[in-house]
Amino acid sequence: MAEPTLILRGIEIHKQALDGPAQEALVAVLREVVRQAPLFTPVTPRGKPMSVRMTSAGKYGWVTDRKGYRYEPRHPDGQPWPPIPDEVLTLWRDLVSAERLPDCCLVNVYREGARMGMHQDRDEADFGWPVLSVSLGDSALFRVGNTTRGGKTESVWLESGDVAVMGGAARLAYHGIDRIRPGSSGLLKGGGRINLTLRVVD
Ligand code: MD3
Ligand code: FE
């Protein structure tokens, strides 16, 4: 699994890194994460609800509300986040590092019509660590731009079982999800997409 299938502006995309049974197993452990840390609808600092629902696992979870974007050691309900599942940590060990494990596994859930606007991931202390992303369920149109806002962009469909690693200069690239393709995967009953994003936070 060391060689990426394609590299898009420095983002290493491993197509079908997870086969069907591995995807099913991951969905099963994520159901347990969501049972312990229920999905919520984040609100931007300007007060606009996001179209994606989220939760997290690990030492920290990423949250946003009227107070701003940040990492927190507890779910908004006051409970600590559940541990990051071993199946997820194994992907990180294989593709990023066995020496330093991620502090946060953000779980983003997209239903039909959900999207994520272009942004940078820069709430972490050390951008030397890559970010790893896992796509499950319906395909998503992923767009990547530049390390400054604006300019030309390129897009690629991320499919169920694809894993992407964003390191080096790509770590600070603007990126977003334009839309998902409803019905493109049968993995999640009821449809939709789950994206896991693993990050070192401090
Ligand atoms: C490129 N999530 O949670 S994952 C996010 O599909 C986020 O839910 C999207 O962007 C999703 O912040 C995209 C792919 C991704 C994640 C982090 C990146 C691409 C990235 C960081 C730097 C550059
Ligand atoms: Fe992001």
Write the layout of secondary structure elements.
Elements: E1 6-8, E2 11-14, H1 20-36, E3 53-58, E4 61-65, E5 68-72, H2 86-95, E6 104-110, E7 116-119, E8 131-137, E9 140-144, E10 154-158, E11 163-166, E12 175-180, E13 193-199
Antiparallel strand pairs: 1-2, 2-11, 3-6, 4-5, 6-13, 7-12, 8-11, 8-13, 9-10, 9-12
The gist of it:
By secondary structure, the protein is mostly beta strands.
Characteristic terms for this protein:
mainly beta, Jelly Rolls, four-stranded antiparallel beta sheet, 13% helix, binds fe (iii) ion
Secondary structural class: mainly beta
Ligand set: N-(carboxycarbonyl)-S-(naphthalen-2-ylmethyl)-L-cysteine, fe (iii) ion
Enumerate the strands of the largest sheet in spatial order, edge to edge or round the barrel. 1-2-11-8-13-6-3
Which stretches are poorly predicted, pLDDT < 50 over at least 5 residues?
Answer: none
Could you tell me the number of beta strands? 13
Distance between the termini: 27 Å
Q: How many helical stretches?
A: 2
SSE string, helices as H and strands as E: EEHEEEHEEEEEEEE
- The name of the CATH topology is Jelly Rolls
Report the C-alpha radius of gyration, rounded: 16 Å
Overall form: globular
Give the number of domains. 1
Portion of residues in beta strands equals 25-35%
Q: Helicity range of the residues?
A: 10-25%
Averaged pLDDT, please? 97
